[in-house]
Write a structure and sequence with these properties.
Layout lengths: L1 H57 L9 H10 L2 H22 L1
Length: 102
């Protein structure tokens, strides 16, 4: 009778030890994952802030926006020889606008 009780006690202690070890292992893994997530969140927030600052710095007044509709209307109402000249003017305007932005 006593041997049976001791056997059960040892079995119970082994199960308790195993479950405690598993619990601590999972807790450690969870903390490591949480640290990685926090680092990634901080990195993404810094990237978002940098993008936000970049957008604010690149904000241009409306007067600097190229009026493509006027150029398009002029291009459609011109004779064929004049259309080539407008195409070159349009490409020049776009290139100037692009280089002033960057």
């Amino acid at each position: 009778m006593c041997l049976c009780v001791l056997s059960r006690l040892h079995k119970t202690q082994e199960l308790l030890y195993d479950s405690t070890r598993d619990f601590l292992s999972l807790r450690f893994e969870h903390r490591e994952n949480e640290k990685r997530w926090m680092v990634e969140k901080d990195r993404l927030l810094q990237e978002l802030d940098a993008c936000h600052e970049h957008v604010q710095l690149d904000a241009r007044p409306v007067s600097n926006v190229l009026d493509v509709s006027k150029l398009h209307d002029d291009l459609l109402s011109s004779p064929l020889a004049r259309q080539e000249e407008f195409k070159v003017d349009l490409l020049t305007c776009i290139a100037k606008y692009w280089f002033t932005r960057n």
